[in-house]
Structures are given as C-alpha cells and as structure tokens.
Predict the 3D structure of the following.
Amino acid sequence: MGAAFKETKLPADAPKSHRALAWVDDRFPLTKLWNDQWGRYYAPKNFNIWYLFGSLAMLVLVLQIVTGIFLTMHYKPDAGLAFGSVEYIMREVPWGWLVRYMHSTGASAFFIIVYLHMTRGLLYGSYRKPRELIWLFGFAIFLCLMAEAFFGYLLPWGQMSYWGAQVIVNLFSAIPIIGPDLSLWIRGDYVVSDATLNRFFAFHVIAIPLVLLGLVAAHLIALHEVGSSNPDGIEVKENLGPDGHGVDAIPSHPYYTTKDLFGVSMFLLIFSSVVFFAPEMGGYFLEYNNFLPADSLKTPPHIAPTWYFTPFYSVLRATTSDFMWVVMLGLAAYVVLIWMRSRLSYKAKVAITVIAIVAEIGMLFLEAKFWGVVLFGSSVVILALLPWLDHSPVKSIRYRPGWHKSVYAVFFATFLTLGYLGTQLPTPAYTLVAQACTLLYFSFFLLMPWWSAMGRFKPVPKRVTFTPH
Amino acid sequence: MEWRGKPVWILRRTPEMLASLPKNDSLVADPNSDKNYQMPVPAYAKNEFRAYEKHKEVLVVVGICSHLGCSPSARFAEGPQPNLPDDWHGGFLCPCHGSTFDLSGRVFKNKPAPANLDVPPYMYLSDNKILIGKDEKGEA
C-alpha cells in the first residue's frame, strides 16, 4: 500500500508554472519520468560520434510518422488509383513532393542510421551482459523496420513495388507442404492484387508502427534500467562517486541534449541536401522502374530490392543447388568442431548434432530454393544471437587483440560486397563471389565463440578514456 | 495473354529453334517435365517441345518463373551475351534471380528455379484458335 494522497503545498508566491507542475506531479509522475528517462539519466562521459545514432533514429522515426500521416491524407490504397494518387501528391498537393521525398529519403536514412547504430554495438560490445535484452529489442525493431519498408514499398504500385512484393511473398511458398497456401493467404489472391495492396496498407500505416513504438519503448526502458555502455566497454556504475552516480557519468540533460542537437543539425544538413538535390539517389533510394505503373504481365529487365535489403538478398541468390554441397560440407565440419572444441554440455552437443543431421537430410531431398530462403532468414536472425556468440573477455574493440580488428574489417567488407552484388544482375562470376561472401558472413558469427576468445587482450582501464576539451 | 491474372505466352518457334531443343536435353534439370510447379503437366506437354505433337512449333506456357514468381524476359538471340552462357541457343532469362529457361520453358540445371515453366491446360479449337484453361480432359 502506498502513502495516502497528499497535495504538494507551494508558497503563495510560487509561479503559476510551478503550481501547475506540482499539481500534475501529484497525479502523474511527469517530472520523475523525465528525470528517470533523460534529465537525470546518468550516462558515461566518454561517448563519441557513434553514440549519436540512437537519438537520430528516434528523430527519423518521428519524421516518418509525421510525414506518413500527411501522405495518408492524399494517398488512395486502390490498385486502380494508387499510382496516380502518388503522382498527384508529387505534382498537385501543395508541398506534397517535399513530404513524399522526406518520407522516401527518411526510409533510407532510417536504415543507414540503424546499420551504423548496430555497427556501434558490434564494435564496442554493447550487446554483452547485462544488455542482451536491449539488443534483442533492437533486433526486433530492425525486423519491424524491414517489414515496414517492405509493406510501404508496395504502396506506390509501381513496377518495382509490384514485382518486389511478388518475389518476397513467394519466398513463403518455398516452405514445404504449407508454403503455396501460405503465400496465397498472405496475398489474399492468386497474384499480387488490390487485396494485397489494401492489407499491406493496413500493416504499413497502423499494425507495424504500433508494434514498432512498443518495441522502441521497451528498448529505451531496458537501456535506462541497466545504463549505457561506452567505447571503453567498462561499467561506470561500478565506480560510484559521493553523489551515488558513477564518477565517469554525467546527466543526459544538458550534456547529451547539446551533443545530440549538434548531431541532429549535422544530420539535417545531409538529409536536406538529399531531399532537395538527389531524392532518388541515383536509383538507390527511389528505383527508376518504380516510376512505371505496376504491370502484372511484365517484369522489369533488371529487378533488385532497395539497397538496404541487398546484403541478405545476395545470400538468397547465392544459394544454388551446387552451393548446397558446400553448405552441407560446412555444416558437417561445424558439428565436428563443436564436438572437439566446445565446452557446451553433452546434451547441447547431441541436440545440435540431431538438428544438423535433420538439416543435412533435408538438404539432400528439398530444393535449393527452400534452403535459399532458410539461409536468407538465418542471415538476419543470426544477428540476434550475438550476445551469446561473443566470448571475448573484454567488450570493446579497443582492448581486443589487433587482429580482431582485421576480422571485423573483413566482416564489414563482406557485408558491403554482398550489398553491392545484390544491386547487380547475377553473372556466374558474381554468383561465385556472393557464395564466398555468404560463407564468410556465416563463419564470422558461427566461429565467433572460438575466435573472439583467442589472442592477447589488452588490460581494460578502471576509468573511461576521456580528455576534457 | 492474361489468364487468371498471370501472363501466358504463346510462341511460334522456327524450325531452327525447334532443332536446338534436343541439344539442351543434357543441360536442363528436367528434360521430360516430370516435375511441375503450380499445375500438373498435361500429358501432351511431356516431351522436349512441351507441345501437342500436331502443333509442336507452338509453345504455350505460363510466363511465371517457378522460383519466386517473376516473369522471365525473352532472350531469343543465340550465342554469347551478357548474363547468359556462351553456348546459348535462345530461351528466357528471369531478371530476378538469374534462372534460365530454354525455348520450351525448361529450366537449366543449377539455377534457383526448381521446375520448368508451367504449361496450362489448353486445346486447339481450330488450327488457328487456342482455348486456354480447358482441354479434352476437362476444365482447369
């Protein structure tokens, strides 16, 4: 039982604003919420540029919601009218072009920011204990963003919208037995049609955004519960000052408010130059074929997903029936490695072996098409396992052995190469490179329990590295 | 041609095109169309021409790739060209994931697509008139 309700008494000459706040605070923890979540949220004082992307992602989320609301006012979710209504927004609605370009550029900006935000996590081990849940919520946000981008991309009802949706929905048809009916159920028709457009619209404007907002709240609540990590990967809460806060921590307001505002101005500078001068970004942000109305009888000669999906798309495309032999060999070798060099329990090893044997049999009998979809899905989902794959005794890359940096460099290069290949037409040589990159990509994660613990680690300091300026 | 919202191609192949088909038998994954994608292969299409014996120059297929449902583009010219093998005899290339099909809609080996292009049920009403969706065995 809490204490009985008591109205806060302020002196008679207190300003009206103070009285109003006291009145609210007695009834709703407004000041407490602000202080817990930001005002008196103590964060390590050694944040660098990598720590801007969280707040920037928040800004872009708000931007997408606000511009999205205005677009919805003029957009028509009807296969016969959708394409025209988007052109109407571009040409007739006052400032419609600006709102639409902000929304389309915002989508790409969102992914750039989120990829950088995740890179930060990878470099400084932000996902390590006790921040596993922050990472998982963040991963779920990433999935939602991909869904949101995919559903939204159908709405202009251009050629790329149509055929992109056709390909992705058909991914589900690769699932044995239930697949074809499942993709039929998702489309609501035998082909991508008006029914598909309407339901994608519903998902894009209300269902996914609701889930997204909930996840963002969970991500932040979890972060503010355990506290932020930092580039040194040490816990500032373990070294408290007389005021009960970490000696190396500073309140977010005003310190990080100012820093983030500077980040926002830099971001807006770049963002507006794209919106005003290169909204299509050479066909990467808005694909040229999407300026043609959807035609169910003709696939554009060069079809590629928008850039933020291409690394995973390359993995899908790299999975041919020849490549499956390599995958089977790799999987078998991995199981042998687990038996010989892993500290997992006997039960866990048996479980992994059984799963691997079932998978190997499946690879013999099921089509490469199905396994392409499985690898495609795994290449995304494997990110979620990072907190449990990384066995390095230090969190931050700063105190890892020098050669770990090369491992990360190879990984980022692999990811970018896969991304580039995904935008190109497949040729035998490109497919070979994509297959090599797919192997490297999965090896980075699957072998991490071993390599991340190898080498000579540097001593981690007691205090954060910080030079006052 | 649109049938059930999907493109159906009707292609009259030249004698040279027909002559090239047996050369592909060893290169395609399923030369005799034993497997199918979304609809069973009609008996009259289970040959390398995938057509009625009487009108074997006329190919009728659903133009939807059995991989992820894109519509392949026509690449009838022979010989080496971008994205195609050097011993190309003409056929179709799927722009989405690079699957290739020969002039009978048979998928080449080691491509993402698992099955040949579907042959819909169809029948000749006369020499110059085709009905799609229905054959002597009944309606689809």
